[in-house]
Write a structure and sequence with these properties.
The chain is mainly α and 193 residues long. It contains 8 helices and no strands. Helix content is 78%, strand content 0%. α7 (125-149) packs antiparallel against α8 (154-192).
């Protein structure tokens, strides 16, 4: 018991996911992810989306400039900007946690038999969650600032862009880790035969 208490918190969290994850839990998490995406995210996004617009949400791009943010806000009414703030600070924040848990469960289930080789790699999806949250809060701040005085802080705009880019890089790392996990799963299956 004392040894568990002395363990690194990340290692404890990683081991928790390895212990609790299996195919049934992964499928349940994926179902929750899809349901939230379809039933909540798409509905909440309609409050600020402009039909036939190239940029539906700043967080869906790979980086942006200050002028892109201003153009995004200027193309929307104040009510739409408020809907965008709520989307980022409430609904997308919850979504990030949902996909972070889902990807972590999948990775944990795929790498479960090779825990010694991979350690806390199953927690990589939470890097994406952290940068998604940083993106959400910085874009929410900029949107609130825009509503107050029609301007945004260039430094925060640049920071938001970096957060978005790092989020997408972390997403790529997550998918790479999942593909690696699937490859190891198939390798184990062929070894058994």
């Amino acid at each position: 018991m004392q040894q568990i208490m002395r363990m690194n918190p990340l290692k404890r969290m990683s081991e928790f996911f390895y212990e609790k994850s299996n195919l049934k839990v992964a499928i349940l998490c994926a179902a929750i992810f899809v349901a939230y995406l379809l039933l909540v995210m798409t509905r909440q996004a309609t409050g600020f989306e402009i039909p036939n617009s190239n940029v539906r949400s700043l967080g869906m791009t790979f980086g942006f400039e200050e002028s892109d943010i201003l153009a995004f806000f200027q193309a929307r009414t104040d009510e739409m900007v408020v809907a965008y703030i709520n989307f980022n600070l409430i609904w997308d924040t919850i979504f990030a946690l949902i996909y972070g848990i889902m990807y972590t469960v999948w990775l944990s289930a795929l790498l479960k038999t090779s825990v010694g080789k991979f350690g806390i790699i199953n927690l990589v999806p939470f890097l994406q969650v952290i940068f998604d949250w940083l993106e959400n809060y910085s874009l929410g701040y900029l949107a609130e600032q825009y509503l107050i005085n029609g301007t945004i802080t260039p430094y925060i705009a640049k920071l938001s862009s970096y957060f978005v880019m790092i989020k997408w890089i972390c997403s790529g790392l997550t998918y790479f880790a999942i593909i690696l996990g699937i490859a190891f799963l198939f390798a184990r299956l062929f070894k058994k035969k």
